[in-house]
Amino acid sequence: MVTPCSARLAPASRLIDLTRLVSRLGRGALTGVDRVELAYLTHLAAAETPLFALVRSAVGHVLLDRDGARMIARLATADVRLGPPDLLSRMFWRGDTLRARAEATARRLAIARCPRPLLARMLRRHLPPGSSYVNVGHANLSARSLAAIRAAGLRVAVLVHDAIPLDYPQFTRPGISQVFARKMAAVATHADLVIYSTADARTRAEAHFARMGRVPPGVVAALGVPVPQPDAAAIPPGLDLARPYFVTLGTIEPRKNHALLLDVWDGMQADAPAAVPQLFIIGGRGWANEDVFGRLDALPPGSPVRELPGLPDGVVAALVQGAEALLFPSLAEGYGLPPVEAAALGVPVIAAPLAVTRETLGDYPVYLDPADSYSWLETINNWGQQGRADRNRRASRAVPRWEDHFNRVLNLV
């Protein structure tokens, strides 16, 4: 087996798994993992090496060529609209119209289809020997699928974003930890290479792989962070941007620790309501966070706290750019894109001292204990002129580029 410290000859073709991206078509803003899969797809679709794409559907697998893969990218960026559902999709996805339309669209774009037991045969028939399979979306990582892909003669590379479902099962939906453990066991058994975005993610994941009996070769390559161009013209009406405001960005789920920020703002309003800065909570609602959802639903008119879901990337960038600071009291992260993006815009960051944040941003943020609401309240209360002066002295921080990531990874895949 070739180790990841030495470059390989380019594969005869690459097969990218787009199962996750297809499942997300038509659902609005893409998550961080979705964006990574789209970045890989966009890069590989423009490369010289022949490209195919694999999608697991409710009834088997579909295989796309480069043109079909490019159409999935266009659908993901809303350049074109999803087609209607077909009979199979209507049968298997009665309660999910978007998933039905997405899988039907993938079938219409396919150059081949097969039931799951015939996956290896389909790949051998359509892909040249010496091809590589790349999975960066944490979907379709079953022992059955990976074994079939290996049986077809493909080298398997998997990007493991994090091990949060195993390290922090309390922050995931019921049953997800067990599902994720099965996925990681399949990776441990079948992967020729595991890609990590940080050394922290590698350390955590490899500890689990060791307990599963095999630690695959790995490589660390920081994810690219393309910062959107701020679009202030599209900011929703009714936001008072003349008053100081802070932002927090991310799905509203337990590990993001929005409850701490609501406690901080409650405390500030109790102490000096006239001087309370605004808090813009940017992001959609996630899961298992009913207490926080209830507190958000109970916000009175004129509250300094505003929930802002579903904003376009340019608007998000504009709001972050104008903020006093980005607040990031997260309890666990795989990469943590929001503070990196804020730093690229020269915006101060107040964050929990996670190992991954220290790895990606060093001493750029102000670090505060995510369990100590008093320290957050005091820091934000005292931000004022000192914080703005600090911002004026602060240069934007260079962020990783996708070009560097792919130069490091694709020599091995």
TrEMBL record:
CDD domains: GT4_MtfB-like. Keywords: Transferase. Residues 241-387 form the Glycosyl transferase family domain. The keyword Transferase applies. Gene3D superfamilies: Glycogen Phosphorylase B. The keyword Protein biosynthesis does not apply. GO terms for molecular function: glycosyltransferase activity. This is Glycosyltransferase family 4 protein. The lineage of its organism: Bacteria, Pseudomonadati, Pseudomonadota, Alphaproteobacteria, Rhodobacterales.
